[in-house]
Amino acid sequence: EPASMSTLVKDNSPESNAFGLTVEALNKESAHKYGVDQTSGIIVTGVADGSPAEDTGIQEGDIIMEVNRKQVTTLRQFRDALKAGDPKVGELINLVSNGARRLVVLHDGD
């Protein structure tokens, strides 16, 4: 029986969460792929249909800069910042979308 994929995940593998976002740490390769100038932050690589993320207008290629006022440049920072938030209040996401900064509040699907 092969090991489950979750045990093989490196820190830069795409990751999905309760908000319907699939994300990975931004680097030169992903920046080039999505045509963005930045090489720091968390890039959105997928948004699930009907998800809380889609409802706020987050799109593939958006770059998440901060979660709950904490700068995020690694998946661990992103996960920790989400965990530290209060789901009842929502997660404050500071992102760059099509070159413009936006603030959105994400609530989980419950």
The whole-number mean of residue pLDDT values reads 84
Q: Uncertain spans, ≥5 residues at pLDDT below 50?
A: 1-12
Q: What is the 3D shape?
A: globular
Largest sheet: 7 strands, antiparallel
Continuous helix count: 4
Give the proportion of residues in helices.
10-25%
Task: Please compute the radius of gyration using only Cα atoms.
Answer: 14 Å
Strand tally is: 7
Calculate the terminal CA-CA distance, rounded to whole Å. 34 Å
| SSE sequence, one letter per element | HEEHEHEEHEE
Structural class by sheet pairing and helices? alpha+beta
Strand content: 25-35%
Q: What is the structure about, briefly put?
A:
With 110 residues, the protein is of the alpha+beta class. The chain contains four helices and seven strands; from the N terminus they run H-E-E-H-E-H-E-E-H-E-E. Strands 1, 2, 3, 4, 5, 6 and 7 form a seven-stranded antiparallel β-sheet that branches.
Give me the secondary-structure topology:
Layout: H1 5-8, E1 15-16, E2 21-25, H2 28-34, E3 42-47, H3 52-55, E4 63-67, E5 70-71, H4 75-84, E6 91-97, E7 100-106
Antiparallel strand pairs: 1-2, 2-3, 3-4, 4-5, 4-6, 6-7
What does this protein look like?
- By secondary structure, the chain is α+β, with helices and mostly antiparallel strands.
- It contains 4 helices and 7 strands.
Notable features of this structure?
alpha+beta, 4 helices, 31% strand, 110 residues, 7-stranded antiparallel beta sheet, single chain, disordered N terminus
